[in-house]
Amino acid sequence: MDFGSDWLHQFMNDGILGLALAAWEFLRNSFEAGAVTAEWWAVLVGGTIIVDVDGAQTVIDHPGMLNVMVVAMIPLLIIFVAVQVIWSLFRSSIEGVVRAFVVALVSVPSVYITTGIGWMLLIATDQITQWILEIGGDDETSAAGGILALFGLYYDPSSGEIIMDENFMLWEMAVNRNEPGQIIVPLGAMIIIFALGLILQMMMIFRLVAILILLTFGPVAIYSLALEPAKAVATRWVSVIVALLLAKPVAAVIVKFGLVASAISNNWIQLVAGMVLVLMAAAMPVVMLTFIAFATGGASDSMERAATGMGRSAARQGNRVVAGSARRATSMTRAAVRTAKR
């Protein structure tokens, strides 16, 4: 095969442009794809969903997975309350009994109140993200364009095509007809850029779906407040949701750094900087989870401390019972001895 032939060179060049256009769409639509919509929310709280398949619309009345979980987890709430009441009575703790019954009364309304707060926070973070992306430009397209410029690529809104800057060293290699084999380097770089754009969009959608799933299992976290040793579950649940909520605005800030990094004169440094920024933005959901876990270090220790405290309390109660029994046995023995002497 003649790797220097015009048709193969044109084929690979078209492949680069196709990958560039796809990467642009991924970068531009990543934050929009990760925004909460009425359809996403209907799956959680219930509502009507219209599915369009080949022009035929099907209306689905979804019950809402949250409503299903609220009912399905009632047995778990009963178990938590029963264990807490029994243990509190064993410890002679009125506060523990009150805690169990209060949680039993307010847990179901609290689930829906918490979910409503989650909805408002999702909308707020989406709006903050949009505002961040629009700083210094008309819309979020300008922010994605700043990242794309780091790769020596520009979007032409009039034609809807991606234009390669032939003064950019990487794309200069792509159009070099005298040494056609050099096109392998820009093709490989474009594949990496395409993959990074795809990962960014996937992670933004992952963030949204993860938050909705966590809210769906909110009844488990809130019901766990009835049992003192299990209250750390609710703390961890809240911290994970907060981390995922913050991930999107932070990712938007990182994307805006592309406008600053574009001032770097060296083409290759710009290329690497662009890749690093997109990768960091994509990794924000995971990074924020790690950061929140670090910032709230010891949040899960409360479960361990509570369990240890329960163990120590049980040991103390057991020692008291044994000691009391021993004292009563000794008293009975002494009384029997005195009676025999008489």
TrEMBL record:
Keywords: Membrane, Transmembrane, Transmembrane helix. The chain crosses the membrane at residues 68-90, 102-124, 183-200, 205-225, 237-259, 271-295. It holds the Pfam family TrbL_3. InterPro entries: TrbL_3 (IPR045782). This is TrbL/VirB6 plasmid conjugal transfer protein.
